[in-house]
Design goal:
The protein has 494 residues and is α+β, with helices and mostly antiparallel strands. The chain is built from 16 helices and 16 strands. The model has no long low-confidence stretch (mean pLDDT 90). The structure holds zinc ion (ZN) and manganese (II) ion.
C-alpha cells in the first residue's frame, strides 16, 4: 500500500504598518528608531480618561490598500476592542475590527514560474500596533528583566487575511512578494520585513486522502515570520512535519488552532499552545470611537488616486516595449526600477529591449546588495536615467564597444560623470574615420600577400587575422565593424 496523498492548505495573515506621519489614535510621530518612549502621549500610554481620535489618513491608506487588492469597501465599518493581557498592550485591549472591517472580498494574482495563481482576500482591517518588549537577554525566557518601549504602540496597522488558497511554501512566498510590490506601488507601507513593518503569520494544515476518506489535520498558525525565505521554509517544514506525525498516528485532527514559532537557525517549527478562539478575546464594539461611514464618492475619489498597479504595468511593458513576460515582471517588481527603466527608454533612440537588458543586467547587479533598499539606492545613485540613455547611444553608434560600455557604466554609477567624459578620459573613443582606417587596411593587405591568397582561395576564416592587424595598429580603437567592411570591400568579398 502506498502513502496517502495530501494537499497542503495555507492561509496567511499579514500585518503591514501604514506610512502615516502620526499614530492611528493620537498625534505622536511614527518615525522609526527614536529613543525609547520619546514618541508617546496619554492616549498611546493608555492613561485613564484619554480618548482616541481617529487618524483619517490611516483610513485612506487602508482603503487604498483594499482597493488595490480588489476588495469591496462597505459603507459602514467600526472598531472593536480585542482583549488580551500582555505587557506591550497598556490598555489591555487592542483597538481592532471584527465584524465590520474596512475592506472585504478581494483577489490577488501572482505567478510562480510561468503559472498564474489567484488568492482570495477575506478582509483588510485597520488596527493599532502594540509596544515592543526589550528583554535583558536574548529572549523572554532566561532574561532577568524586560523593558517596554511604547514608541511603536498605536502605529496604524492593516491586517490582511487571505482565504486558504495557497498550496505550498513557494506559492506563499511568491504571493507575499506580489503583495509587498502592490503595497509599495501605492505607497501605503514601506513593507520592510527586517524592521517589522511587514509581518506574516501562516496557517498550515493538510487535507489527506486516506483510503478514500478525507482527513484534515489541525491548523497550526506559525507566528512572526520575518523574511520571505522564512515563510517558505517554515511552511514546507510544517507541512512535512504534520504529514509524518499523521503517518505515525501523532497528529491531532480538527482540534482548533494551535500556535507555533519558527526557528530560522534550526530550520524547524515549535508548537506552543492552543490558540485562543475569538470568544476568548471578549470582543465588543469600542464605545470611544464612532463608526466609520465612507461614501461611494469618497471611495471612487481614492480609487482615482491609485497609480498604475504592477499587474497592469507589467502587461503594458509587454505590449508597448515588446518585452517578454519575464522581463516585464522583473522590471515592474519595484516601482522605482520601472520608473527608471521608462525614463531611460524615453531618452534613448533605439530598441527598448536593449535598455531592458542593461537595467536587468548592470543596474540590478549594482543594487543586488541593497535588498529592501534597492529603490532608494537607485534613487540616490549618481547615475541618472538620461545618463544611461546617453551611454547606450554611444554604444549603439559604434563609438565604443560592449565591454568598454560596461566599464564606463561602472564609473558613471559611482562618479556621476557623463558617458562622453568617461569615454574620453579612458581613451575609449573608437576611430570611425573611414579614410584613416582605409589607409591602414591597405597597408595590412599589402604586407600579407600569403593571407590574401588564402582568403581568395576560399579560406575566409583568415579575415580575422587581417582585422586583428588593423586593430593592433590602432591600439584597439578602430571600429571593428568598419574595419571588417573595408577589408571586404578591398578584397571584393561579399
Ligand atoms: Zn500618542
Ligand atoms: Mn492583528
Amino acid at each position: 500500500m502506498g502513502y496517502p496523498e495530501y494537499q497542503v492548505i495555507i492561509g496567511l495573515e499579514i500585518h503591514a504598518e501604514l506610512a502615516t506621519e502620526s499614530k492611528v489614535f493620537c498625534s505622536c510621530p511614527t518615525t522609526f528608531g527614536a529613543a525609547p518612549n520619546t514618541q508617546v502621549c496619554p492616549i498611546c500610554l493608555a492613561l485613564p480618561g484619554a480618548l482616541p481620535v481617529l487618524n483619517e489618513k490611516a483610513v485612506e491608506l487602508a482603503v487604498k490598500a483594499g482597493l488595490a487588492l480588489g476588495c469591496e469597501i462597505p459603507p459602514f465599518s467600526r472598531f472593536d476592542r480585542k482583549h488580551y493581557f500582555y505587557p506591550d498592550l497598556p490598555k489591555a485591549f487592542q483597538t481592532s475590527q471584527l465584524d465590520h472591517p474596512l475592506c472585504r472580498s478581494g483577489i490577488v494574482e501572482f505567478r510562480v514560474d510561468d503559472q498564474t495563481y489567484q488568492v482570495r482576500i477575506n478582509r483588510v482591517h485597520l488596527e493599532e500596533e502594540a509596544g515592543k518588549s526589550v528583554h535583558s537577554g536574548e529572549r523572554l525566557q532566561g532574561s532577568h528583566y524586560s523593558l517596554m518601549d511604547l514608541n511603536r504602540g498605536g502605529l496604524p496597522l492593516i491586517e490582511i487575511v487571505t482565504e486558504p488558497d495557497l498550496r505550498s511554501g513557494e506559492q506563499a512566498k511568491a504571493f507575499l512578494e506580489r503583495l509587498r510590490t502592490i503595497l509599495r506601488y501605492i505607497e501605503v507601507s514601506d513593507c520592510k520585513m527586517q524592521e517589522g513593518s511587514l509581518r506574516c503569520d501562516a496557517n498550515v494544515n493538510l487535507s489527506i486522502n486516506d483510503n478514500g476518506k478525507n482527513v484534515r489535520t489541525s491548523i497550526v498558525e506559525i507566528k512572526n515570520l520575518n523574511s520571505f525565505r522564512a515563510v517558505e521554509r517554515a511552511i514546507n517544514y510544517e507541512a512535512q512535519r504534520q504529514y509524518e506525525d499523521y503517518l505515525d498516528g501523532n497528529m491531532s485532527l480538527n482540534a482548533g488552532k494551535i500556535t507555533a514559532g519558527w526557528s530560522d537557525a534550526e530550520g524547524r517549527t515549535y508548537v506552543q499552545r492552543q490558540k485562543e478562539q475569538a470568544d476568548d478575546y471578549f470582543y465588543f464594539p469600542d464605545p470611544d470611537l464612532v463608526p466609520i461611514e465612507i461614501s461611494a464618492e469618497q471611495v471612487e475619489s481614492w480609487r482615482s488616486q491609485l497609480p498604475e498597479l504592477p499587474a497592469e504595468r507589467e502587461a503594458r511593458f509587454v505590449t508597448q516595449y515588446g518585452l517578454s513576460a519575464y522581463d516585464a515582471g522583473v522590471l515592474t517588481a519595484a516601482k522605482g526600477i520601472a520608473d527608471f527603466y521608462e525614463t531611460v527608454v524615453e531618452n534613448f533612440d533605439g530598441d527598448p529591449k536593449i535598455v531592458a537588458n542593461w537595467v536587468m543586467g548592470e543596474v540590478l547587479r549594482m543594487l543586488k546588495d541593497a535588498g529592501d533598499e534597492a529603490e532608494q539606492a537607485l534613487a540616490e545613485a549618481p547615475l541618472k536615467p538620461h545618463m544611461l540613455a546617453e551611454l547606450l547611444q554611444l554604444l549603439q553608434s559604434g563609438a565604443i564597444n560592449g565591454n568598454q560600455a560596461k566599464e564606463v557604466f561602472a564609473e558613471m554609477w559611482t562618479s556621476g560623470k557623463d558617458a562622453a567624459v568617461v569615454v574620453k578620459e579612458r581613451g575609449f573613443e573608437q576611430i570611425s574615420d573611414t579614410a584613416a582606417i582605409a589607409e591602414l587596411v591597405n597597408a595590412v593587405i599589402a604586407a600579407n600577400p600569403k593571407v590574401i591568397a588564402d582568403i581568395q582561395g576560399g579560406k575566409t576564416s583568415a579575415m580575422g587575422f587581417l582585422v586583428g592587424q588593423v586593430m593592433k595598429k590602432t591600439a584597439g580603437k578602430a571600429n571593428p565593424k568598419l574595419v571588417n567592411q573595408l577589408i571586404r570591400e578591398q578584397l571584393n568579398i561579399t
